[in-house]
Amino acid sequence: MNYRNLILNKKNLSYEVSQYIKEQIVNGEIEIGSQLKINEISDHLGISQTPVREAIQYLVSENVLENYRNKGYFVRKHNEKDIFEIYSLRATIEGLAIRLAAQRNDEEELNALIELFEEMKEKREDPAITSISHYSTKIHEAILKMSKHEMLINVNESISFQVEIVNSVLERKYTKDFEVSEHEELIEVLKEGDPEKAEKVMRNHIYRSYYNFIEENEGVYSKELLMFFPK
């Protein structure tokens, strides 16, 4: 994709630059802990330094970047407290979201979600596709929308990038079969229409991701905070 053309066609230039930087971080083009240089980004995109500087300030306010005095701007590294807070907040937000979705039990919305899941299963069989993790994101987003809880959706949006960063680590570990099986239980519990059970299933789904992340990063993050999650 030609990001330069994409950005130059947008009105809110600084915002689009911030989204470009985020995408580069998630894709691994910009590494966690690396330094961002305003002049290099502006030269690469063919734009002035002003919108890049504004974008970086915006990302600092979002805790995506850190500003070290006399050193510059760096991509923020998550510590174990950050990881715990991301997963525990996700469990709370998405647990309530699926509970409300199950309680509403909207047949049309559920059928649309099932179609999305069926598409995910079809892509699993395609040998040319190595990852179907983006379907996981779509399923979780759809369940949030099914809750019809606008404030809940907005709170989730505020941590969505942090979740993407964490998920990008697990995407390298998860197989396509694992992704499908993990999300099949979410679909099935919504079909049952049991709000309490749905919330429990979603919370356990996210707890497992937390355990997997800690296991994948053994030696980097301690297991001390695992005690706060049910096994």
Outline the structure in words.
The protein is mostly helical and 231 residues long. The protein has 2 domains: 3-75, Winged helix-like DNA-binding domain superfamily/Winged helix DNA-binding domain (Arc Repressor Mutant, subunit A, Orthogonal Bundle), CATH 1.10.10.10; 80-228, Four Helix Bundle (Hemerythrin (Met), subunit A) (Up-down Bundle), CATH 1.20.120. It is 69% helix and 4% strand. The protein has 10 helices and 3 strands; from the N terminus they run ααβααββαααααα. It has a 3-stranded antiparallel β-sheet. Strand 2 and strand 3 (72-75) form a beta hairpin. Helix 3 (38-45) packs across helix 4 (49-61) and helix 9 (176-192) packs antiparallel against helix 10 (195-216). The protein is globular. InterPro entries: GntR_C (IPR011711), TF_FadR/GntR_C (IPR008920), Tscrpt_reg_HTH_GntR (IPR000524), WH-like_DNA-bd_sf (IPR036388), WH_DNA-bd_sf (IPR036390). GO terms for molecular function: DNA binding; DNA-binding transcription factor activity. It comes from Pseudogracilibacillus auburnensis. It holds the Pfam family GntR. This is GntR family transcriptional regulator.
